[in-house]
Automatic annotation (TrEMBL):
Residues in HTH luxR-type domain copies: 148-213
Sites bearing 4-aspartylphosphate, chain numbering: D54
PROSITE patterns hit by this protein: HTH_LUXR_2, RESPONSE_REGULATORY
GO molecular function list: DNA binding
Family annotation (CDD domains): LuxR_C_like (cd06170), REC_NarL-like (cd17535)
Listed Pfam families: GerE, Response_reg
Record-given protein name: DNA-binding NarL/FixJ family response regulator
Domain Response regulatory: from-to ranges: 3-121
Amino acid sequence: MIRVVLVDDQPLLRSGFRALLDLEDDIEVVGEAADGAAGLALIREHRPDIALIDVQMPVLDGIETTRRVAADPALDDVHVVILTNYGFDEYVYNALRAGAAGFLVKDIVPEDFLHAVRVAARGDALLAPSITRRLIARFVAEPPHRAVGTGLPELTNREREAVAFAARGLSNDQIADRMEISPVTAKTHINRAMAKLHARDRAQLVVYAYESGLVVPREG
């Protein structure tokens, strides 16, 4: 059963998302809140698999709520998915850096919304190649401040290679094809890299790859 906490200050949207989720046999909404502070309390109480969090809220916004979830070792298994009205913007970018696993635009069709919840529950990042490209564009505009290679000696050469491909938006199947290995082995390389670099999920691994200098952004 996938356990979900909903955090959004718009009651109509919150009830709409809940109605969709409540129809699914494998998903349970265990709590909902109208602001980040109340949402954080619910997340700490229930430790859900997924926290769907609006990016702009009163009391505590989605970015700070995400940051506090990511900083709490007791909430390591909680995957934060940011809800936004505007697509990929400054708020979403900062939320990904704060620890979000991905984001959803609120006008998403129901089938895609439910699929995304299940994807996030598996621990996969909600970062389509188009979104990864926009992340890359940000790092092109704002080069990393962290020293190149910081912390990277922990990775094997194959793990570095897999992370570099993931940072360019490739799926595990595509990484396997490029590296001439099986998809299972590709996933193993990614999972081991995440563990070594203390990345909560694939989204954090992608951000780290650019901030560490493992992958150098390229125009085009």
